[in-house]
Amino acid sequence: MAKGFARIELLGNLGSKPELKTVKGRDDTDLDVLNGKIAVNVDENTVQWYSFELWGARAKAGAGHLDKGSKVLISDATMLEPHVWKNNEGKDMVDMKVRINEWHWLDSKKED
Questions:
Q1: Per-residue pLDDT tens digits for 59-103
Q2: Residue ranges of the domains in the chain?
Q3: How far apart are the first and last CA of the chain?
C-alpha cells in the first residue's frame, strides 16, 4: 500500500521570536505561525495557529533573522507525528508539529 503524505504551504506571521536550542546535538527552533486576522469581536476571529520546527542550518538562520510578527512563507513542510497533551481542564488536546523543508522570510532586514 502506498504511504500517504501531506504537503503544506502557509503565509503568516510569527507569534513569538524563535529561540535556538540544541537537541541531541542538533540545532532546533520552533515557530508558531498565525494565519488569519484577530477581530474586536471574538466571534469574528478567523485566526489559526500552526506549529513548525526548523533543524540544522535552517534553525540557525530562522533564529537569527526572524522576530515576533515577521512575515514568513512556508513553501514546503512535512507533517510529523501528532503530540497529545492535556489542557488546564484536563481535556486531551492534539497538536500536529510540522517540519519545515523550505521557507522564505518576507520582511526587510531588521536593524540592530
A1: 998 898 899 999 999 888 877 777 787 888 888 877 777 888 888
A2: 10-105
A3: 53
